[in-house]
Amino acid sequence: MLFLPRMLLLGIHFILVGLIGLVIGLCRPFNPDNSRLYARLYAWPASWLLRLEIKAEVGPLFDQPPGCVIVANHQSNFDLFVLGHVVPPRTVCIGKKSLGWIPLFGQLFWLGGNVLVDRSNAYQARRALQTTSRTLQKDTSIWIFPEGTRNPGEVLKPFKKGAFHMAIDAGVPIVPVCASRYARRLNLNGWRKTRVEIRSLPPISTTGMTQQDIPALMEQCRAQMQACIDLMEH
């Protein structure tokens, strides 16, 4: 019964934030703090409309100075409204190139200084990773979903190497961020609240690491995140 009016209001909200954000982006294009501001504008009203009760324990994320790689689990398209509550200052995101074609949102993504990657073009993908490595050295953090795709399941998918390549190349720490499994509990047709927990884990140092350390680093990060998510579900 609530599904259609809720989706209509979310659509209106999405357009309004897009218009407001476009003005902000044009006034200060590519400012690395635009993404945090956009994330809050999207998340605050949308979490009320979706009846999301957000509990965030992200001290390690905000204690870490800008200039790190943030990795998070990716459950659904609603992650913007969930994780948008905890995007720290001076943080940009890596997304697939097709995001740039979404009206208003794509323009905000670009004006926020975020990086669009064409996964079908290996050369362009490498160029994008080089760009993000330089970004990290400018006291700006990179937010990435290492699974590479949406995953509402209980077990994290194998991580892709890009985030870990960037962290080691730039010599910066990795900060894992975990969201509890909300996607399958979210009731778009009801008014009961869905509780979502978000926790950040202590930074993982990459000092002294080389590309040969990537497999072990990936597994360490994935194991810590999986344990955290499992703990939040009990």
Automatic annotation (TrEMBL):
Q: Which residues cross the membrane?
A: none
State any GO CC term. Answer: plasma membrane
Name of protein:
1-acyl-sn-glycerol-3-phosphate acyltransferase
What GO biological process, any one, is recorded here?
CDP-diacylglycerol biosynthetic process
Task: Share the domain note from the entry.
Answer: The HXXXXD motif is essential for acyltransferase activity and may constitute the binding site for the phosphate moiety of the glycerol-3-phosphate.
SUPFAM superfamilies in the record, alphabetically?
A: Glycerol-3-phosphate (1)-acyltransferase (SSF69593)
KW DNA damage (keyword) present = no
Organism domain of life: Bacteria
Q: What is its EC number?
A: 2.3.1.51
Q: Which PANTHER family has this protein been placed in?
A: 1-ACYL-SN-GLYCEROL-3-PHOSPHATE ACYLTRANSFERASE
